[in-house]
Amino acid sequence: MSEHCMHAQFTVNGETVDAQVPVRMHLVDYLRDELGLTGSHLGCEHGVCGACQVMVDGQVVRGCLTLAIQANGKQVQTIEGLTESRELQQLQAAFLEHNAFQCGFCSSGMLLTALEITKHHKKATREEIRELISGNYCRCTGYQAIVNAIESVLVKSTSKSGAKV
Amino acid sequence: MNAPHELPLQAEVVATQENYVGQSVPRSGAKKLLEGRGTYLDDLRLPRLVHVVYFRSPHAHAVIKQLDLSQARKQPGVVAVFDGHEVAKFCTPWVGVLGHLKGIRSAPQYAIAPERACWQGEAVAAIVAQTRRQAEDALDHVLVDWDLLPVVTDMEASLAGNVVIHPDLGDNKCFSRELITENFEAEFAKADVVVEKVYEFSRHTGVTNEPRGILADYNPAENLLTVYQGTQTPNMMQDIFSRHLGIPESNVRVICKDVGGSFGIKVHVYPDEMATAAISVMLKRPVKFSADRIESFLTDIHAREHKVKIKLACTHQGDIIAFDMNDLTGIGPYSVYPRTSGIEGNQVVNLTGGPYKHKHYKAKLDVVFTNKNVTCQYRAVGHPIAMAITEGIVDEAARKIGMDPAEFRRRNLIADDAYPYTFPSGVKFEKLSHHQCLDQLMTLMDYKGLRQEQANLRAKGIYRGIGLAAMIEVTNPSPAFYGVGGARISAQDGATIRLDPAGMVNVLVSVTEQGQGTEAVFTQIAATAVGVKVENVRVITGDTAITPYGGGTWASRGAGIGGEAVLQAGKVLRKHILDVAAAILKVESATLDLVNGVVVDKLSGQEQMPLSEVGRVAYFRPDTLPMNFQSELTVTRHYTPREYGFTFTNGIQASYVEVDTETGFVKLLKHWCVEDCGTIINPMLVDEQIRGGIVQGIGGAMFEECMYSEDGQLLNGSMADYLVPMAGEMPDMVIGHVQTPTKTSELGAKGVGEAGTAGAPGAVMNAINDALAPLNANVSVQPFTPQRVLAALGKI
Amino acid sequence: MKSPDFSYLKAQTMADVFAALQTHGDAAQILAGGQSLLAMLNLRMTNPKILIDICGIESLKGIQKTGNVVRIGALTTHQEVLSSSVVQAHVPLLAQAVPYVAHLAIRNKGTMGGSLALGDPAAEYPAVALALNATLIIQSATGERRVKATEFFISLYRTAMQAHEVLIAVEFPVATSNQRFVFSELARRKGDYAMVGMALAISLEGPTIREASLAFMAMDNRPILAPHAMQAMVGQPINQQTISQAQTGLDADLNPAGDLLANAATKKHLSRILLSRALMQAGASHV
What we know:
The complex is a heterotrimer of chains A (165), B (796) and C (287). With 165 residues, chain A is an alpha+beta fold.
């Protein structure tokens, strides 16, 4: 193969990757094709649909708009890792309970956005939840069940923190 | 009778069998999709897999003067290159026509166009390489000389026929149909009031989140073709691969893994997918084609490009006498195979006026070829058009005579006791519930309250609108839909249900899953029918080597048809299980029952043995059973609807909007739908199907449009420029139900997957026009962009 | 689609960057957040020979208020701008604009420098920079130069930057208590590029507008000021008459081509509506 490659070292779901990486390859292609982590999906490859979202150094990013080589020295987490670590457990249970998924193709990206909401927007209203997930395309659900699911997790965490219910 | 404390410890009294039909059981079997553990087409890898990309015509209509693939062949990683002539030796062409659409015509279509491209994006060469990116690199080295041909993109121009796409056909008419009821002109003339309008619908497309894909794996040693494909209908594809590639039917295996959305997009035959299968045969190794988003916009079927003139005739009192409808629709340069591109328009003819009790109807349909992408069945096929024009013109009539639109509908909806009923277009209704649904809707949405709120706000210069859309929907079709026309498309489905030794139940069903919850629904029916807990049932779909032969998923048939097969098979398995248990216990099977996975004494309810014990003896110790007894713990049943060509459902939707009359922006405040789909198996899944369908309909009504230039260039073929509904602009949707089970099956379930999409555009259009009515403005061209609203208001 | 091949350099210092730009000229492209560049690469709409990744250069980061200027490093992400109390307090027009920028995941990577250097006419930052006449700080191998926003955006995706230069920071003026700011945008969906958008900055003396700066997005092939509309506001109070006169001024200022979302007539109409609403909002606010 005559394309440019460079050495990169990074962690994916806690495991070290130490490899020659095709420079032009975006992170999700690397995860899917080279590491077999197919839980992140490609819906458009131009950064609009959100199906490709992964976490890099704790931040949600579009995996298709990140070069794999840019992960060098960083910590990457995918839906598989975040499931394993149980960080997504509450949201996943809520999505199941509310049927906030149908075909599931948008779900890994949607769950990562939902995780960000539960971390940084704990008081989001339904309207605000809708705005915050408006970068994740879902064709199946019409979004209402997803809003319900995220709202239910926010409500639970609010009542857990001792606020009057 | 022994007192309870005298009974042996293990003789518990078991509760009654859980009836899962009607319960909102979560889809535990689909949990993997939330954990990144699904298997979608592009996730699949096989040894020696190569990737194919297609060189696609940049021109809407051009002859290939010269095609030179030699440079592309030399590029790094390239394994093979093919043109249309080469692939045609392995894959025969097809024509998308069926016998029951009288006079329908189309031209032969090849897997790769050998001589002429007829739309921008049509594949004219294939490049196969070790990786997709190498194949794409090689595309830059394809050398092609084109002879440009005149392009026709406008429907009316196509009808006029100055530019004829297929000279052999003489003109651009794919299909025409006329229908007129007896004495129409005389009856129409009796009208006191006639309203007339032209409605236009822009073509749009499915935009499934997962693009199309296929992985074909030909094994020459067995002459066996295995195809992984996200198709809704694996048996149909099995037949088509077999006939067009010349491989015996049973040597073709089509497997569906997880599918990232389909909505009809993945039920059709695509030339690039056929080519991929052919190339696997040619190369004798696995070949994968994964469309990217740009290719999807160019080549996934488009739909719903119509211009319709409709007239409604009624009396002063508001009784509808007649509808008169003239529909012109523009498809691509070929009628899509095998379901034809005439069906959508045909549905518009069949269904216009659907909810109403008028007797007189005249309809004309013209389906014409254009040099744009092909079109075919897409969720709710024709219904969004038919319901929008019907409900739109009904509102016009109500406005004209000064009657409240709900009142007007009340007056004209077919009475709930009028069934069975034959509609002027010839379709037959078993039993609908229009009035019950209207009643429930009025209450659910607090219609009177909303009208008051609307009036109060109007006084302050805020323009809100309420729009209603009554609808009928085709579900559970019999062979009347395709089979009668000669298509090898099955309208029946089967379920094979089996008790495994450890006591779990396995169900193989020929209906397929694309996320709507088909598999979940079948676990519920199977569990209830057999007599086990729902968590002890596994459902497998989508493998022609394993699942029964059937139609798959389309036209909202999965729950109603597949579900009935599962029910019948389950009931028989239950009986056979009890026969085995009776043989073990040496009692009459009529004294036994199977409750939540436990064989019990029917009378006392006492536990006799767990299902695992039945399994153990039947499979491993039949020597302990009577000499002439044979355990039959695998049962297959098939089902096809017979009495009605289609099992119609009905419903009614409402939309509440606010129009910013200065900017033309429409805010969707809320949406309601009351739907009668017969027996509801899982209310949560049904409601979510309706919601998803409504939003998809809203997409077409408000946002989505495939924009073509005059010379056939797709101008907005990316997710940035083609606007799909996102969460920020969508309303909350309230769903209600009436349940009128169909008597054509024991389950009584009708279909519901498309209902949301059928009625949403009409409801939204009517709401916008209701908001604009005081300003004498009206919109009639979808999508209802701010620009169109501003133009209607005379602001631009 | 998959990106064409290119080579890649992770720059450690600005010197690395300039050396590479010297060697490759036009065939090199700077990679910052990559939210526009990588999309274009994936769509095969651009074909650079080399990407110079500047994300590791610390001196390009940070938000700092110094005197009456807020300096924002080119590598500052939209998310950092969104959560900056300095921006919130001292550059309110920018604070109003950031929520309109794309979506959460894009904001985590997209940068101030990237957005300004691209100069997309329908993007938020270029219009804000123009309305505030921010100062773009550009560096090359030979030194630094400062360009006012009014001189920076030249035509479609063409700015005052040369091939051998890098945008390293932007300075926004600190808001004063007599100023009012309104950013507003009409888009079909949250986070989309604007159909029409505007950024307004006015200075008041009592009820009278002393200065006005009005920039529009998606009305031309670059963000543009509306000088006639601005002129019509100066020396006037915010009232219906002034609004009408400013709207009339827009007729002379704005000559948009239509695009896929809206034709010229629609855009012109909407620009008038946005201006009217913005002035009314500015008149009503006391901050």
